[in-house]
Design brief:
Blueprint: H1 34-37, E1 41-43, H2 46-54, E2 59-60, H3 73-81, H4 95-108, H5 111-115, H6 118-137, E3 142-143, H7 144-149, H8 152-161, H9 168-183, H10 188-214, H11 228-234, H12 239-269, H13 280-285, H14 290-305, E4 310-315, E5 319-321, E6 324-326, E7 331-335, H15 339-343, H16 361-378, E8 382-384, E9 390-392, E10 397-399, E11 403-406
Parallel strand pairs: 1-7
Antiparallel strand pairs: 2-4, 3-11, 4-7, 5-6, 8-11, 9-10
Helix pairs in contact: 3-10, 6-16, 8-12, 9-10, 10-11, 10-12, 12-14, 12-16, 14-16
């Protein structure tokens, strides 16, 4: 069993599809330690998962921002002393309050607004690739996860919402630490370190909310001329809930999208057979058909090894779904990618279903596909180094790194 976000030894190596080696691509109970399975019931049948998500009153999202395992008393005291709190909002809320907030947020992630970001994503990828070209030409190795996939999503989410980002290194550290604290199973000593990081992130968000609410300059690029936090404030959403939404949005809006792009890059680069085709990096690099090839890679990754392959629900009252009985208070882990969905290349649940379907689905797909296409176009002569080393938590997974080098005896090329 791997530790949260520690390298996971691949289940298979060599000429094996990258998504097939993902830790959450198969039977979920095999991926989790006993302390997680003692508190959660895994639901893997796609029809049952879809029905659970559809019945939002019977299966509620109250545990969406709860820790997977109980926090130690010392960790709880540290969080309480700092005033750390994440009241229910959006992904962790239900009822009229959820719908009210969702309507406000949805305006910032409309298909039309998301579509306008394709050029910006492409430009950021080209700039990142130009920055690493010299090291590759000199015979070095470069991690595309850190140097390309990780740098794009924060810029785009900020452009769409009007909410500023902290320093990039802080954002990445805070995001990863919060993912592990809430969706991992860290030991008590590790919990305290993660809690201090979460407290710093929470404090920065409080200051960011204040700055955004005090902003008087209208922006014609934003809905109603307001940043997202100001729009929520104008809709009557309390400040603490705005901060709670920002906490989740800044993680989901950039870290999980970067993880999806990492998996797509690793998949396209890998030697071997995948999805009835070979040579995906070359396919994705093609100036004419590469965009479509990249979208196809991303779609299959979403079906087989999404960066968010599970999500949680709590059973509100004793009920049944088909032949399955569910008891009030049960904590469920729903499989959204991999398993039967992966076998049939069905990505229909990859971003959830029903009232809580991810508002950033279109943005994540666009960013991952454009990152893959533009990176392959800019550097068509790359080879992967080694096999993917995965990290995973309850609901998140990705190759930790995507190391590459120039193919031997072939100089790196850059296409305009």
């Amino acid at each position: 069993m791997s530790c949260p976000f520690a390298p996971t030894t691949p289940a298979a190596t060599g000429r094996v599809p990258v998504p097939a080696t993902a830790p959450l691509a198969g039977a979920l109970p095999e991926a989790y330690p006993e302390q997680v399975l003692d508190r959660h019931r895994c639901v893997e049948d796609p029809r049952t998962v879809r029905e659970v998500l559809r019945r939002a009153e019977d299966f509620v999202p109250d545990n969406a921002l709860s820790t997977v395992v109980p926090l130690a008393p010392a960790t709880l005291r540290r969080l309480a002393a700092a005033g750390f709190a994440l009241p229910p909002v959006l992904a962790s809320a239900s009822g009229p309050g959820h719908r009210h907030v969702r309507r406000v947020v949805a305006r910032f992630f409309s298909p039309a607004r998301v579509g306008t970001q394709a050029g910006a994503v492409a430009g950021l990828v080209r700039e990142a690739c130009a920055g690493i070209r010299g090291r590759l030409e000199a015979g070095g190795e470069v991690d595309l996860a850190q140097e390309v996939a990780g740098v794009v999503p924060p810029v785009i989410i900020s452009a769409l919402t009007g909410v500023p980002n902290p320093a990039h290194a802080d954002l990445k550290r805070w995001s990863r630490d919060s993912l592990e604290l809430f969706w991992g199973w860290p030991e008590p000593g590790r919990q305290l370190k993660l809690a201090n990081s979460a407290i710093a992130f929470h404090a920065w968000l409080g200051e960011a909310v204040d700055r955004c609410l005090a902003e008087e300059r209208a922006s014609p690029d934003l809905p109603g001329g307001q940043n997202l936090f100001a729009a929520l404030d104008g809709a009557g959403v309390e400040r603490d809930r705005i901060r709670s939404l920002g906490y989740f949005l800044m993680i989901a809006g950039q870290e999980t999208t970067a993880m999806l792009a990492q998996t797509a890059l690793s998949t396209a680069l890998a030697d071997g057979r995948w999805a009835e085709s070979e040579g995906h990096w070359a396919d994705c690099a093609d100036p004419e058909s590469g965009a479509a090839a990249s979208r196809a890679v991303v779609a299959s990754v979403l079906a087989r090894a999404s960066s968010v392959p599970t999500w949680r629900r709590v059973v509100a009252a004793d009920t049944r779904v088909g032949d399955e009985a569910f008891t009030a208070g049960e904590h469920l882990v729903l499989q959204l990618s991999g398993g039967q969905l992966g076998e049939t290349e069905d990505a229909s649940l990859a971003f959830g279903f029903g009232l809580h379907r991810c508002l950033g689905a279109g943005l994540a797909e666009l960013e991952a596909a454009v990152i893959l296409h533009e990176c392959a176009r800019a550097m068509p002569d790359l080879d992967p180094v080694g096999v993917p080393q995965w990290g995973h938590l309850l609901s998140f997974q990705a190759p930790r790194t995507v190391p590459v080098r120039v193919r031997p005896s072939v100089p790196v090329g850059v296409r305009a």
